[in-house]
Each structure stands twice: as structure tokens, then as C-alpha cells.
UniProtKB/TrEMBL annotation:
<dbReference type="InterPro" id="IPR003399">
    <property type="entry name" value="Mce/MlaD"/>
</dbReference>
<feature type="domain" description="Mce/MlaD">
    <location>
        <begin position="40"/>
        <end position="128"/>
    </location>
</feature>
<protein>
    <submittedName>
        <fullName>Mammalian cell entry related domain protein</fullName>
    </submittedName>
</protein>
<dbReference type="InterPro" id="IPR052336">
    <property type="entry name" value="MlaD_Phospholipid_Transporter"/>
</dbReference>
<dbReference type="Pfam" id="PF02470">
    <property type="entry name" value="MlaD"/>
</dbReference>
Length: 328
């Protein structure tokens, strides 16, 4: 069977189109950009896990270039670094910027980031400030490996390591709180008893002073009448007795005023002390609930959970013994 020329032409066109599409796909996946310039920056990192040749570079979140070279720093270069942070660097990444990227400020921050856990990492450049001096071509920047989700995981790492110690501390605190709650409850009850006991006694003493003062007034009035009817030496003795009674009456009045003022101050101070102990009893009981929750589930420091129903203040204050901090 004789084939037409058109069949060969169609087959050739299909092959050429396939090659063009394959080349375009390869170019797109490589991350290369047609608008690349000769402007480069070098960034030193302690770790560049996830970064490779042709990885994307973003300036303030926008596409700004690609990674064109990655090399390890020599020990001589690391030892020659000026600061302790720079001595921790192990890799130097060279990035090539696009032509339309404006001059980069010198206070820019270079980090590694990723949009999601599964997406590829890229070099992230912050916007910097417009008034800062601009970086020269080929300038070297200090990079920061932690960024985005990586930074979060690095921050959670030390916290996770400290959780066992925190748990042990919480258990010790729980054990030490039971005697504290018991003593706090006893102190509140003692203050209440003292207030109730001192109040009636002070009132009785005030009543006694008032009665004595009234008796002194009556005695002075009687002496006045006796002095008016008396004569001779007896009158002089009665006048001296009156003088003494007047002094006693003044002393009783002063004592009455002093005790009244002291009773009011003492009652107020005892009431304030009772309030302080009541607040301490409530706070220590609720603190027990917090430490118990952290001891049982340390993850509450990071992830929130279902709120617990705490024992009300009224129930805590009514009880003479330690009560559960959390209602079942």
C-alpha cells in the first residue's frame, strides 16, 4: 500500500510539537526565568535543607529570581568569620535576581520558607526599608534557616524537651498545695472566730466603761449637793474628793473614746485580713486546678482544650476543708 506524502508531514508535525511541549515543560519545571540579569547576591546559611539549584527566590513575597549556585564553606572561611553567628554558617547560596527587581536594601532579612508542609522551600527576602543603603552586586548576606513552619517547629522543640521537667514540677506543686489549702482554710476560720469573739468582748468593755462613767457623773452631782450643805473641815475634804472624782471621770471618758476608736480600727483590720485569706483560699484552689491540668496534659501549653468547670468561690469559702478544684 502506497503512503501519501501528507501522512509523513502530519507525523513530522506531531513529533515536532511534542518536542516543543517537552522542552517548554522542562523549562517550566527547571525554574529558569527568561528575564534573569547579571545581578547576584550571596547568602550564608547554617543549613539549607530543602533548597536546591533553581529554587525560587521571593522578594517581599513576589517572584524575584532563582538559586544559581550552592557550595559548602571551607573551614578557613568559617574560622575567618567575624561574629559567632557567622561562624555557624556552613553553606553559601548564590541567587540571581530578575531584571525588574529594584535595588535591595541592606537591612533585608534572608530566610528559608515554604507555603505549606508539602510545598517546596524558597529563599525569602524581606522588603527592608526604602531609606536603607542599597546592596552592591555580589554582596554577602547573613541568612536565617528558621522561617515559617520551620521556625515554629524549632521553637516548639525546646518546649517539648522541657515538658518532662515541667510535669515533675507540677506534680511536686500539686503535692505541696494540699497542706497549703488546709492551712489557708484553717486561717480563714480562725480569723472569722477571732472577729466574732473580739467583737462582743469589746462591746461589753465599752458598755462597762459607759456605766462606770455614768456612775461617776452621779457621784459628782451628789458631792456638789453635799458640799453645799457641809461646813468646816468636812467641806474641804468633800471638795478634794470631788476633784478626784472629776479626774476619774475625765480618765473614763478618754478611755471610752480610745477604746471606741481602737475597736473600730481593729474590727476593720480583722475584716480586711479575713478578705485576704478568703481570696488566698480561692486563688490557691484554682491554681491547683491549673497545675493539675498541665500535669495531666502538658500539651495544653500549645493546643487549647475543652475548658474545665471550676469549683465556685461560694463553695470554696463555705467549706472548712480543701475542696476539689474541678467539678467532676
Amino acid at each position: 500500500m502506497k503512503k501519501n506524502l501528507s501522512d509523513y508531514i502530519v507525523a513530522l508535525v506531531v513529533i515536532l510539537c511534542s518536542l516543543v511541549l517537552l522542552g517548554a515543560l522542562t523549562y517550566a519545571l527547571s525554574g529558569r526565568h527568561g528575564k534573569s540579569s547579571d545581578r547576584t547576591l550571596e547568602i550564608d546559611y547554617p543549613d539549607v535543607t530543602g533548597i536546591k539549584l533553581h529554587s525560587q527566590v521571593r522578594y517581599a513575597g513576589a517572584d524575584a529570581g532563582t538559586v544559581t549556585n550552592i557550595r559548602l564553606l571551607t573551614f578557613a572561611e568559617r574560622e575567618a568569620a567575624e561574629t559567632e553567628e557567622q561562624k555557624k554558617n556552613a553553606v553559601r547560596v548564590t541567587i540571581t535576581l530578575l531584571k525588574d527587581v529594584p535595588p535591595i536594601p541592606s537591612d533585608v532579612r534572608a530566610s528559608l520558607a515554604a507555603e505549606t508542609l508539602l510545598s517546596e522551600k524558597f529563599v525569602a527576602l524581606s522588603a527592608g526599608t526604602p531609606t536603607a543603603p542599597k546592596l552592591a552586586n555580589g554582596a554577602i548576606l547573613q541568612g536565617h534557616s528558621g522561617g515559617g513552619l520551620d521556625g515554629l517547629f524549632e521553637a516548639v522543640g525546646p518546649l517539648a524537651e522541657s515538658l518532662p521537667h515541667l510535669l515533675a514540677t507540677a506534680e511536686d506543686l500539686l503535692k505541696s498545695m494540699n497542706p497549703l489549702l488546709t492551712k489557708t482554710g484553717d486561717a480563714v476560720d480562725s480569723v472569722k472566730v477571732a472577729v466574732n469573739d473580739i467583737g462582743p468582748r469589746a462591746s461589753k468593755l465599752l458598755d462597762g466603761l459607759k456605766v462606770t462613767s455614768d456612775s461617776a457623773d452621779v457621784a459628782v452631782k451628789r458631792l456638789d449637793k453635799m458640799i453645799a450643805d457641809a461646813d468646816g473641815p468636812l467641806k474641804g475634804d468633800l471638795e478634794e474628793l470631788k476633784t478626784s472624782m472629776v479626774k476619774i471621770q475625765g480618765t473614763l471618758n478618754s478611755a471610752n473614746l480610745l477604746l471606741t476608736h481602737t475597736d473600730k480600727n481593729l474590727d476593720a483590720r480583722l475584716q480586711e485580713l479575713a478578705v485576704v485569706f478568703q481570696n488566698l483560699k480561692v486563688v490557691s484552689t484554682h491554681a491547683k486546678a491549673v497545675t493539675q491540668a498541665l500535669g495531666e496534659k502538658p500539651s495544653r501549653l500549645i493546643f487549647s482544650g475543652k475548658p474545665q468547670k471550676l469549683t465556685s468561690e461560694e463553695e470554696i469559702l463555705r467549706s472548712n476543708k480543701p475542696v476539689p478544684a474541678v467539678k467532676p
